[in-house]
Amino acid sequence: MFRYTKLSLLREVGLWLLALVFLLPFYFLITIALKPDDEVFTTSPLAPPSTAYFGNFATVLTAQGNSNVVLGLINSLIITAGSIFGLVLLGSLTGYVIARSTRRWSRGVYYLFLIAIVLPTQLGVVPLYIGARTIGLTGSAWGMIILYTGMLLPLSIFLYAGFFRGLGIEYEEAATIDGASRTQIFFRIVLPLMSPATGTVAILAGLIVWNDFFTSLIFLGGSSNQTLPVAMYYYIGSLVSEWNKIFAIVIVSMIPILAFYLFAQKRFIQGFAGGLKG
Fold this sequence. Notes:
The protein is an all-alpha fold. 75% of the residues lie in helices and 0% in strands. It starts with 5 loop residues before the first helix and ends in a 5-residue tail after the last helix.
């Protein structure tokens, strides 16, 4: 039976203090973003705004041209969602084949994917760009989805293969006896059991794709399909020291990915714990 002791109290106080330390940057972010221009440099960063001023968000969201934040937000959502779908579909299928195969080649292929995870993707940017430009994928949302899917597929396969190896084959054998095909077994039985792995892949890939700046700048720079980090780059470059507007655009960029993490955090935690319970 759990007993609440002085040590428990000290642990709680320590955790609350640690939480306050981690939340302090968010406090600065929100308070400065809600301050009008005349309060940014005349008041302390710790001081809340005299009145909540949402004009900074309106200014950020109505920017046009290369600094169009709304268009960048939409493009980032499309590219991130498409990349996650491709990684879940292809990664789960490939990981399942590797995990269930008893042939020697499967282990060799698995190690090749591990090597691909270790190698930095920046090493292949030049040939990737030449190839993408040759087939007309630069400046295209579809091209970025294909590119991100290929870049992050080794990580997806690695995570799925590890989970599949820890999953028994009893359900699959029972479904085979009942007359189910391999496709039905995978999509109706195996993949639903992999929801912790799917949540882990979705959040990790989503964070990488959503926050990626370098690849988007190279392959989408100057096009109408540029992502939110690129739009932020152009917009912040024109602001110099208008920190209230800079912090406002940072908050806008954080909201979608935070909402997605809160939605999928249960599966994400289960994935890291190696659990298979839904």
